[in-house]
């Protein structure tokens, strides 16, 4: 069976990601392996965010809520119940289902700018709760998390080593998330989501329950952001209200627009560019955010479809 160009590119990228740790420390320091682990964790969250914003057309300014929810679920479960990441993820996903259903139910009653601000309001509520409930969450000081483990209880348990063990664990979750999202958007359900994004009124005439579809999309997106939050909290051994802050939700929008919303690869690429570029610029100047902002403005003006839009135009030019 012949492989298409797109599949060859994706397999090449996957191979590079698998081989990346072999270059450390001979070609680069472990610090860059830490940085790529962060890129992959944000990639998981951006894949989920794109299901909601890019494919359903619901841009949330409060998605950090679920990233922080995953972090705090990891902190409470690891510190009090078990360090095994499997049950930790189950607890976190149960919390994401409950909170996602609640927030999604009310938020999807609105759309456009009203949806944006309602999701922001819910996220700020959780942020302030985490900030002020110092006896439970540690307030601004946050909570330290014990070392996470993986394995089968009673048979085999091992600590997730840094940076190599954690990198491969996160890479495994990232690949699984990509295929889950790909399965969602290529399914009949995913096609309906795209139709809702384009014209939800026409879709309702076809007999689809628009509200139900939007809530499902919101919950899928929330669960993936929560998984990313669990991995980030366990990786940092620390969680704080900063994981719930609205500015993180703004970063998700920036990353998605830069890479290209409505494409699975685009937001992940945008996230990688912002994280890696931000790291390099911050080592050169304290005012690195100015350059990121200028880069973003140029992207909006000259490439509103993002990096993936530029790639599509290049392919068109070559034809």
UniProtKB/TrEMBL annotation:
InterPro entries: ABC_transp_permease, LivM-like. One of its GO terms (cellular component) is plasma membrane. It is found in: Cell membrane. Its main location: membrane. Pfam families: BPD_transp_2 (PF02653). GO terms for molecular function: branched-chain amino acid transmembrane transporter activity. Keywords: Cell membrane, Membrane, Transmembrane, Transmembrane helix. The keyword Plastid does not apply. It is a multi-pass membrane protein. The chain crosses the membrane at residues 35-53, 60-79, 85-106, 113-131, 164-181, 218-235, 255-277, 289-311. CDD domains: TM_PBP1_LivM_like. PANTHER family: ABC TRANSPORTER ATP-BINDING PROTEIN, HIGH-AFFINITY BRANCHED-CHAIN AMINO ACID TRANSPORT SYSTEM PERMEASE. This is Branched-chain amino acid ABC transporter permease. It comes from Desulfoferula mesophila.
């Amino acid at each position: 069976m012949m492989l298409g160009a797109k599949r060859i590119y994706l397999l090449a990228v996957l191979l590079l990601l698998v081989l990346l740790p072999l270059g450390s420390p001979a070609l680069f320091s472990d610090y860059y392996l830490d940085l790529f682990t962060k890129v992959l964790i944000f990639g998981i969250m951006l894949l989920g965010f794109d299901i909601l914003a890019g494919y359903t057309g619901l841009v949330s300014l409060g998605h950090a809520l679920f990233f922080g929810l995953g972090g705090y679920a990891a902190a409470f479960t690891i510190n009090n119940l078990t360090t095994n990441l499997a049950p930790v993820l189950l607890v976190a996903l149960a919390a994401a289902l409950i909170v996602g259903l609640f927030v999604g139910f009310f938020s999807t009653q609105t759309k456009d700018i009203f949806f944006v601000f309602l999701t922001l309001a819910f996220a700020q509520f959780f942020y302030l709760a985490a900030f002020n409930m110092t006896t439970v969450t540690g307030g601004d000081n946050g909570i330290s998390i014990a070392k996470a483990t993986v394995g089968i209880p009673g048979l085999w348990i091992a600590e997730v080593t840094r940076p190599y063990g954690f990198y491969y664990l996160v890479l495994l979750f990232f690949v699984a998330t990509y295929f889950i999202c790909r399965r969602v958007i290529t399914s009949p359900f995913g096609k309906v989501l795209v139709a809702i994004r384009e014209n939800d009124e026409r879709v309702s005439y076809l007999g689809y329950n628009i509200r139900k579809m939007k809530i499902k999309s919101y919950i899928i997106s929330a669960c993936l952001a929560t998984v990313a939050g669990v991995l980030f909290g366990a990786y940092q051994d620390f969680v704080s209200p900063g994981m719930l802050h609205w500015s993180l939700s703004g970063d998700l929008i920036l990353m998605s627009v830069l890479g290209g919303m409505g494409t699975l690869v685009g937001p992940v690429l945008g996230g990688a560019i912002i994280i890696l570029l931000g790291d390099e610029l911050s080592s050169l100047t304290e005012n690195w955010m100015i350059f990121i902002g200028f880069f973003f403005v140029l992207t909006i003006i000259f490439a509103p479809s993002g990096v993936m839009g530029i790639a599509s135009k290049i392919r068109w030019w070559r034809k």
